[in-house]
Amino acid sequence: MVCPSNNPYRPIRARVEQVINETGNIKTFVFKPEEPIPFLAGQFMLVTFPGIGECAFTPSSDPKVIETIEFTIMKAGSVTAKIHELQPGEFVGLRGPYGQPYPLKAYHGKDVYVIGGGVGLAPLRALLFALNHEIDQLNKVVVRFGARSPQDICYKGVINSWGERKKTNLLITVDSTGPGWTGHVGLVTTILDENDIDVKNAVAVVCGPPIMMKFANKRLLDLGFAPKDIYLSMEKNMSCGIGKCFHCNIGKYFVCQDGPVFTWEQLKDIPEPW
Amino acid sequence: MTEYLLTTENLHNLVRQLIAEATIYAPINTAGRKYLEIVSPNNIDRIDLDGFRTVDTFKTAVFKISEQVARYFGQEEAAPIKKQVFLGIRACDLEGLSIGDRVFLEGDITDPFYKRLRENLLLISADCNDCGPTCFCTVVKGNPYPTRFFDLNLSPVDEGFIVEAKSEPGRALVDKYREYFNSPSDYMTREKNNNRREIIKKIANVNAAFHLRLDLTQTHKANLENKIWKTLTKDCVECSACNFACPSCTCFLLLDGAAGPAANSRHKVWDACLKNGYSEVAGGANSRPRLYERLQNRYHCKFDYSFERLGRFTCVGCGRCIDGCAGNIDMRKVFVELERQAPLTAKLE
């Protein structure tokens, strides 16, 4: 048995407080760690399902709340399948937070164009909490979110209220419509409009599946965004989370250390970084 | 710089003393080839510091093939650790070790398991006085004799070894066993320097067909989007021998134990960037789904990205990847082809 102090590979135990069904394959888990784990919006953590393994997720809760921490997780592989079986009272492990957060100070005085796709809304939810805390320093926050269908929209009970926050505007689109849907139908790129924001004084933040990020990024460049003003949350296979194991490289960068938030300026010379 | 003479007999005497206080890894001659073994009284006489590097790499003793790094969530106790000595480690393996040091010990977070082993490691290196057909340290700016990163270095001469003490632990060892270390004559130092010149010439001859005109980082950058990689990969069978044999490859995966004594334990296990699942995420997305993309990434990792991250190549020219390759891919031939392609593809800066 070996364990030097400050062991970065050892998770902190956290109790499952609540499980919220978001969609058919997405749940939000409220964890209470045995010691508080402060994080900044955009940073990620590794969630351990005991005996099975761990996966990287960005918390979806308000960074100002430190007693509990929430993750919105899609069932996609072996670890997330086990996580989806969790019930309140059971335990997981948490490591982190790791990586670079959204540089919120750089957004002060600007329009913030927040673009999400699918479960990519999870880290953006934490960001939107953080932006709302600093809303007086921002020009405005414009949220554009796409889901596959009305059933696939997360945070159903509260999402519309985000658009009612001070200086915040929200529009949701679905790829294909469903019963009772009266909103926009089409990919998220179809609702990105130059009239939404003052491109010359704005930053864009994108999080979603790789294919969505690729086309949203292209659309933003077409709208006139400078590469340095587009912030992308990159996802790669991650193991250690601390820049040692090399799994998550995109060219010379490690997503776990240099990211997960990158500007397009950093990535634009790398062939197919998605 | 103070030098000493250590006869072969006194080297064996020294090793007999060190066996009591440390685990010693040394090249042991087995049927004409040198493999790393733990030294015991039974194999001292087969320690062979002649020639060049061992078949296997020393990294295994500090970056273990599999190592338990956590047990959650109960209390954990640190196990006692025994001092290790790497005897006869060559310049290439020292460079490889120094790259591991940078990966595991630098940055905001260090790897405490590597650190513990590294802090209890004494490096007694040796000059090469021969080279193998796949040795190419000089092609990647290295030397066949250690100039840094060692505690003591042994340069073979007729009477035994000329010893150079580089570090405080190295000097302390000499002081502790002073009776084994004598003063060398000037002609012995001349012999050492002459041997070094000769081995440089020999490696140059072995690698005469791989003379490179361009900087390897620039050559790789120029070929970043060149489909020549498909051709260069055609004989690769994804066995990953190159990854595992490499003294500077440090990729690993964290694996959790599910049942029995391993339940809720976490192991740091060697991984290989050539494997298809290496970059795959849940749901099936893979940033390098094609083998040629993964082989190319391995080369860029060593000659392009490493230069940007660490300011150096992370290939040390030991040639083990060539020896181990099931497809007979020779890194040096890849260099030559990339250099031939470079002017045809992107502009060199």
UniProtKB/TrEMBL annotation, chain A:
One of its GO terms (biological process) is pyrimidine nucleotide biosynthetic process. The keyword Acetylation does not apply. Binds 1 [2Fe-2S] cluster per subunit. Keywords: 2Fe-2S, Electron transport, FAD, Flavoprotein, Iron, Iron-sulfur, Metal-binding, Transport. Its cofactor is [2Fe-2S] cluster. Residues 9-104 form the FAD-binding FR-type domain. Gene3D superfamilies: Dihydroorotate dehydrogenase, electron transfer subunit, Nucleotide-binding domain of ferredoxin-NADP reductase (FNR) module, Translation factors. InterPro entries: Cbr1-like_FAD-bd_dom, Cyt_c3_hydrogenase_gsu, Dihydroorotate_DH_ele_sf, Dihydroorotate_DH_Fe-S-bd, FAD-bd_FR_type, FNR_nucleotide-bd, OxRdtase_FAD/NAD-bd, PyrK_electron_transfer. [2Fe-2S] cluster binds at residues 240, 245, 248, 256. This is FAD-binding FR-type domain-containing protein. It comes from candidate division WOR-1 bacterium RIFOXYB2_FULL_48_7.
Automatic annotation (TrEMBL), chain B:
It comes from candidate division WOR-1 bacterium RIFOXYB2_FULL_48_7. GO terms for molecular function: iron-sulfur cluster binding; metal ion binding. The keyword Metal-binding applies. Keywords: Iron, Iron-sulfur, Metal-binding. InterPro entries: 4Fe4S_Fe-S-bd, 4Fe4S_Fe_S_CS. Residues 303-334 form the 4Fe-4S ferredoxin-type domain. This is 4Fe-4S ferredoxin-type domain-containing protein.
